[in-house]
Amino acid sequence: MKRYPSGYGLAPPGRPRRDPLDCYDGCFTRGFVTAACISAFQDVAPPASRPALGRIVRHGLQGGTALVAGTRAANAVRRGDYLSALAATAAGAAGVMIIEQLLHPSQGRQDKEKSHG
To answer: Quick one: pLDDT band at residue 105, thresholds 50, 70, 90?
Structure first.
């Protein structure tokens, strides 16, 4: 019977051994889809306008970024590597802030879009 690396126990029959870094595979995509689904209908009517779709994409990107950072930080804390956990947290927060600055519509753009459409 296959064994997982330290702390992972026995592998179930017929399943491959899990690599400790497998948790990063698709992590961003999971966060993106999760956050976008939540954002799609939260406090608004169904998204039909361009600004609503932009908000969903922005929240999805931020959710993916935050999930990757949180996963890396949690794994670093589990290993006792607190400096890496802090770096992952700071990088995630910076990534979310950068996405917000790049993709959040300014008030001027919102007013212009309302007057045209």
So the answer is: confident
